[in-house]
Amino acid sequence: MWYRKQEIIKMDKQIEIAGDDNKNNIGVLYGIGVGPGDPELMTLKAINTIKACDIIAIPAVSKDECYVYGIVPSFCAAAARLGISLGEMMDEIHIIPASYDVRDTVGYGGTCVYMKSGKKLAELIEVLRTGDAIRKKKMTVYGVTNCGMESERVYRGLDELTEAKGYLTIVIVKYS
C-alpha cells in the first residue's frame, strides 16, 4: 500500500506512482524502523523523515489492517521502556515462557526474558534468588507489567519485582 498525501494508491505487481508521467524519475527510498512499538518512542529523526516524504509505503493490504507497531515483540518494547539492550555483541538471548519449569534455566547465560510471568512470579523470584549462588555470575533483574498500557509498571531488582502483579509481566535477567 502506498500513501501519497491524503490519497491512497493501491499497488499491483509493478510499482507505479499515479499521476507521474515520467517513469524515469529517481527518488530516495528511506527504510524507517518503528522502534519498540510505542509511537511515542520513535526517534525524532524517524518522525521528521516521515513528515518530509511525499510517499509512504507500508506493508498492508488496507489502511484499516495496518498496525505497524503490532509487529514489535513485547519483550523488545519492555527493554526499550527500561532503557536497556537485550544483548551485546555475542550475548545469548533466551525467550522463556514462564509457564515452563523456570528451574531449568538456572544455568543459562546472557539474557533471559521470562514472558507472562504473573502467575509464576513468586516461583521465578525464588529460583533467581537461589540460583544466583549456583551461577556465581552477576545478575541484574528488571521487570515490566502491562508494557505500553496506562497501568504499566517498571521494576528494577528482585526486591522491587516482588511488588509486580499481573499476568502480562515480563522479567528480564541479564547475566555478566
TrEMBL record:
Q: Which domain of life is it from?
A: Bacteria
Report any one BP term from Gene Ontology. cobalamin biosynthetic process
Q: Does the keyword rRNA-binding apply?
A: no
Name the Pfam families for this protein: TP_methylase
Annotated Tetrapyrrole methylase domain residues:
29-60, 72-157
Q: Which UniProt keywords apply?
A: Cobalamin biosynthesis, Methyltransferase, S-adenosyl-L-methionine, Transferase
Q: What pathway annotation does it carry? A: Cofactor biosynthesis; adenosylcobalamin biosynthesis
- A single MF term (Gene Ontology): methyltransferase activity
Q: What is this protein called?
A: Tetrapyrrole methylase domain-containing protein
